Amino acid sequence: MTVVACSLGEKNIGHFMHFVQFVMKTGCNRPEWRERINSTALGATSYVERDDVNECLDYCWGMLDCAGVDVNWNIDPKQCWPHYDANDFRDANIYRQIGTTSFELVTRCAGNVTTPGS
């Protein structure tokens, strides 16, 4: 029998469990992002390793103090740069950077988990 979390790799197990707890606690299953292609926002913290953009977005979504992320597509694996201050995404703090996409978390809960019978 295979445990699903083990297939995520050891570095991702803690994040996966944190994310599952967030969804279960809030009932939220869908955030809303503002995407700016070829842009970066000032103020990001040190990057975290995530294998793709969805892992990066899920990482931020599951962290209650995360305001958004920049994803650097120029490097493999992708670099995920979290932001913890919503002011980072003011227009004055957004700059053009080829190969990077800035994702601002607009709404943490744009949809809820539905359960049978509800």
Outline the structure in words.
- By secondary structure, the protein is of the alpha+beta class.
- It has a domain at 32-110: Hepatocyte Growth Factor (3-Layer(bba) Sandwich).
- The protein has helices at residues 10-26, 53-62, and strands at 28-41, 48-49, 68-72, 79-83, 94-112.
- The protein has a five-stranded antiparallel sheet with strand order 1-5-3-4-2.
- α1 crosses α2 (53-62).
**N- and C-termini, Cα separation:** 32 Å
Q: Summarize the main sheet.
A: 5 strands, antiparallel
CATH topology of the domain at 32-110: Hepatocyte Growth Factor
Give the tally of β-strands: 5
Total count of helical runs of at least 4 residues: 2
Poorly predicted residue ranges: 1-11, 113-118
Strand % is: 35-45%
Q: What is the CATH architecture term of the domain at 32-110? A: 3-Layer(bba) Sandwich
Structural class: alpha+beta
- CATH superfamily of the domain at 32-110, called what? Hepatocyte Growth Factor
Q: Give me the strand/helix succession.
A: HEEHEEE
- Name the average pLDDT: 78
For the record, the CATH class of the domain at 32-110 is: Alpha Beta
Rg calc:
15 Å
Shape: globular
Q: Roughly how much helix do the residues carry, as a percent range?
A: 10-25%
With strands numbered from the N-terminus, the spatial order across the biggest sheet is 1-5-3-4-2
